[in-house]
Design a protein that fits this description.
724 residues, mainly alpha, 24 helices, 3% strand
Length: 724
């Protein structure tokens, strides 16, 4: 019945073996899931954003929106991971990133409303009859899957550089371990072997004595004739007892597995559902890659075909339109216009004219206008200051219309127009749709013809018309004005970035040096889900009624915050550009609580480079050992050069994670304590100033996360941490 909502996909035909039939069923399943999710998204867009609500009602409403967006996000992530149709995957990814960004915006607004970093949604989950695991956010698998080839090549390169570095190192001879001599070892083995043989002999003699005693008793009593019925009863008792014990043992094993006290037995791979799911996913990934390659080849061939078949008609239509503009302009101004420059878009405004802005009727002299502007600026400044003070007093402001909401609206409109009623009965293998490709490429081909062919021809034609009408007169004034405009554009200056200290070095040489110094490392294969922990929601509602103090965050909430604030913006460029993001974070806690594992999981699940700038990594030896890295103040072996190389490679190969373990040693406030307790040659605060400079030059589009770990964050100076 669920297949009836998918036009043309209800009729299933077996085209191959069992694997192909299972894949075909999965196509229908995820297509149905996609359509249901888009319908849910349409319902959510009617409620987002709310209008005219106080803070309490707004918090409840946005909490409901957040939970629903989390559910939509998880469904869309599954659809994008499993769909094999290349054009559907493109549309699903667009709406997935929009939902992801909107979800982060709403969570940021909820944090502002409540004033808490970790928000509990227990009341709303109970009202919606949902379990806490509903809020568990998965890391989108496409962060790594779509860059798998590049990541594998980079990992092999770094592993090769590490192997070459370790091969060049001199192997230090291991000190001889204090052990037994050969005679002592033989003596100990002999004693143990004699003891073992004695135990076996005693056990064997005990069995012989018991058997002899049994035979003696039988001789004294005399062995009666065995009754067949009585023998059958004895056998039945023994068998039933054995069977009951076996069933009880199996039930005990199942109970231990159920309560999590014992690992389940390994099933054969063909019967294990998890293994079967992994096999199906790997097979569908292969189909995805094949369909994507065919789609990219079709883009080239269909674009060429559109150009050959429709290019002439497009060219003639645009030239006729531009000629009509020439005639209309000359009739109105009694002269031919100047053809627009390429920098201004050429003839684009002829086909897509900008909206006309009506001037105010109360326009005065230029001086009055300037004075009015100055007065308005002063008023705006005064209002701005007052507005800021009022905003601080009133609390969080209402959310403006989000770009992500507009993106979701356009995606849902496209879904309704293109996919909702589309008949795919003949596309059972979910290959690309050629008609959709033609519709998508036709505007691009038209624009290319306009810029490269039509503008050049019509510009020459306009010059010929001017020459014929004006008898050789040229419009010099227009050209001079154009030149002045260009000079004005060149005069604009932006902010200066950091000076490039390695302009002549290649990226491979910089990576090699960082690997040789053990700064660029391979993050261990962890995932965020390895940080195990549950929600504390058994008596949270009653506890909240008795004690209004917000409780400490649960491990599940910490895991959720890491995914929301660190993983999602770092892994997606579209989300990083517009959604709230964090590019500096501190994870603190006692030893062994999972700080380093979370740091490596962030790098691994986003496919990021991992730069280790920990104090003990840069200065691993004792004073006088000579193992300190980049000890100089200036030059190629200085901390300035090291930081420059790290951030240059991190920006070029983004996303990247700059990791600093025991960050309190770098940002420590008490310098005397640092000198007395630091076990290395030089204090790690020696590169703090240059580090803050590099961080200052980071831009919003740089996908770089600076991640610090600490056991005692309060030992650090607060001002450098805030600056960083």
């Amino acid at each position: 019945a669920g297949d009836q909502g998918v036009p043309g996909t209800r009729r299933l035909v077996k085209t191959g073996g069992e694997g192909e039939e299972r894949d075909d069923m999965a196509n229908v399943t995820y297509d149905v899931l996609w359509r249901e999710t888009m319908r849910d998204l349409l319902d959510m867009l009617e409620l987002d954003p709310p209008q005219d609500q106080d803070e309490e009602e707004a918090f409840q409403h946005f909490s409901y929106l957040y939970i629903k967006y989390v559910q939509i996000f998880k469904n869309l992530e599954d659809c994008y991971d499993q769909h094999v149709h290349p054009q559907k995957r493109i549309d699903i990814k667009e709406v997935l990133e929009a939902v992801m960004g909107r979800m982060l915006e709403i969570k940021e607004y909820l944090v502002q409303l409540s004033g808490l970093k970790f928000i509990s949604f227990d009341d709303i989950l109970v009202d919606l009859k949902l379990i806490p695991e509903t809020l568990e956010l998965p890391v989108p698998r496409y962060f790594v899957d779509e860059r798998k080839k590049d990541l594998d090549m980079r990992e092999k390169l770094v592993a090769t550089l590490i192997a070459a570095r370790d091969a060049d190192k001199e192997v230090e001879p291991e000190p001889p371990e204090a052990g037994f001599s050969l005679e002592d070892a033989i003596r100990i083995i002999q004693v143990n072997e004699r003891g073992r043989q004695g135990k076996q002999r005693a056990k064997f003699m005990k069995e012989i004595v018991r058997q002899e005693e049994l035979e003696r008793k039988l001789r004294e009593i005399g062995q009666p004739e065995t009754d067949p019925d009585q023998a059958a009863v004895v056998i039945q008792k023994l068998f039933r007892g054995f069977k009951t014990l076996k069933q009880a043992r199996l039930m005990r094993e199942e109970e231990l597995v159920f309560i999590g006290m014992k690992e389940p037995e390994q099933k054969p791979r063909e019967l294990d559902p998890v293994s079967r799911q992994a096999d199906i996913r790997s097979r569908r990934k292969i189909i995805q890659a094949q369909n994507k390659d065919e789609y990219e080849e079709a883009l080239v061939s269909i674009r060429r075909k559109i150009y050959d078949d429709e290019g002439v008609d497009m060219r003639e239509q645009m030239m006729d339109k531009i000629r009509q503009w020439f005639v209309a302009y000359r009739e109105q101004n009694e002269a031919f216009p100047d053809y627009p420059d390429e920098e201004d878009g050429g003839s684009l405004f002829i086909f897509d004219p900008p909206p006309v802005v009506e001037e105010d009727e109360e326009g005065g002299d230029e001086k009055d206008g300037k004075g009015g502007k100055d007065d308005k600026k002063k008023d705006d400044k005064g209002k701005g200051k007052k507005g800021e003070e009022e905003a601080e007093d009133e609390g969080p402001q209402e959310l403006p219309i989000s770009d992500f909401v507009l993106k979701m609206q356009s995606c849902t409109e496209k879904f309704c127009q293109v996919w909702q009623d589309r008949d795919e009965s003949q596309n059972f293998a979910q290959k690309y749709d050629a008609e959709l490709i033609r519709d998508a490429l036709r505007p691009g081909v038209r624009e290319e013809i306009r810029m490269k062919e039509v503008d050049e021809v019509m510009r020459n034609e306009l010059e010929n018309l001017k020459a014929a009408v004006e008898k050789g007169k040229k419009g010099k004034k227009g050209k001079k004005k154009g030149k002045k405009g260009k000079k004005g554009k060149k005069g604009k200056k932006g902010k200066k970035g950091p000076k490039d200290l390695t302009p002549d070095r290649t990226m491979d040489s910089l990576m090699k040096e960082l690997v040789d110094k053990d700064i660029l490392q391979l993050a261990s294969n962890y995932s965020v889900q390895d940080f195990v922990g549950q929600h504390r929601n058994l008596d949270m509602i009653e506890r909240k009624a008795l004690d209004p103090t917000p409780p400490e965050a649960s491990l599940a909430q910490i895991r959720q915050a890491v995914v929301e604030q660190l993983v999602l913006p770092l892994g997606s460029q579209a989300v990083h550009e517009k959604a709230p993001f964090v590019n500096k974070a501190l994870i603190y806690g006692p030893k062994g609580c999972g700080k380093t594992m979370l740091s490596m999981a962030i790098a691994r699940e986003t496919g990021s480079n991992f730069f280790n700038l920990s104090a003990r990594n840069l200065d691993p030896g004792a004073p006088g050992s000579g193992r300190i890295k980049y000890p100089d103040k200036k030059g190629a072996n200085s901390a300035v050069m090291m930081l420059h190389m790290v951030f240059k490679v991190a920006k070029a190969l983004a996303p990247s994670v700059v990791y600093m373990d025991e960050v309190e040693w770098t940002f420590i406030a008490d310098k005397k304590k640092l000198k007395s307790q630091w076990p290395g040659e030089k204090p790690p605060s020696r590169f703090l100033k240059d580090f803050l400079k590099e961080v200052k030059f980071l831009k919003e589009e740089d996908r770089i996360l600076i991640l610090g770990n600490s056991r005692s964050a309060r030992c650090s100076s607060p001002s450098p941490l805030l600056l960083a």
